Amino acid sequence: MKINEAAAEFLACRRIAVTGVSRTPGSHGANVVYDRLLERGFEAIAINPNADEIAGRPAYPDLRSVPDGVEAVVIGTAPQRALDTMREAVELGIGRVWMHRSIDGGSVDDEAVAYGREHGVVVIDGGCPLMFGPAADGAHKAMCAVLKLMGRAPRTVS
């Protein structure tokens, strides 16, 4: 399916976990995604094994600790941690995972992508949910075009 369709289906989920949200955000990509999803009315849930709270909101050490679960996950951690998150998502029956990647290396891990897809997860392997639909802004839309040209954002999702 085309990336726009996969992004629309992902963003139709309202309860989205974001891994890698930091207590000291700076310009950390996971924090930017988490904050924007909250601003746009999503029920964003911070995943950080070293924090019980981030910016006054609860944080959880892993996906299985989130009360009532989530519909989708944005992986915003180092790629070496993506496979563990993907395995946990599969175990919990979470069917949509977005591996964040901007101009840097991001969170994409080929083994995690393959594992998720082998287990029926719709995996968006690159780009950022803030480049699409109700979460987007002008800067992220422009970034989307650039990242597609650079091969850092997928044009299709299988």
Automatic annotation (TrEMBL):
Domain CoA-binding: 10-104
SMART domains linked to this entry: CoA_binding
InterPro entries, sorted: CoA-bd, NAD(P)-bd_dom_sf
Gene3D superfamilies xrefs: NAD(P)-binding Rossmann-like Domain
Top-rank taxon, per record: Bacteria
Any matching Pfam family: CoA_binding_2
Name by which UniProt lists this protein: CoA-binding protein
Organism: Tessaracoccus flavescens
Lineage of source species: Bacteria, Bacillati, Actinomycetota, Actinomycetes, Propionibacteriales
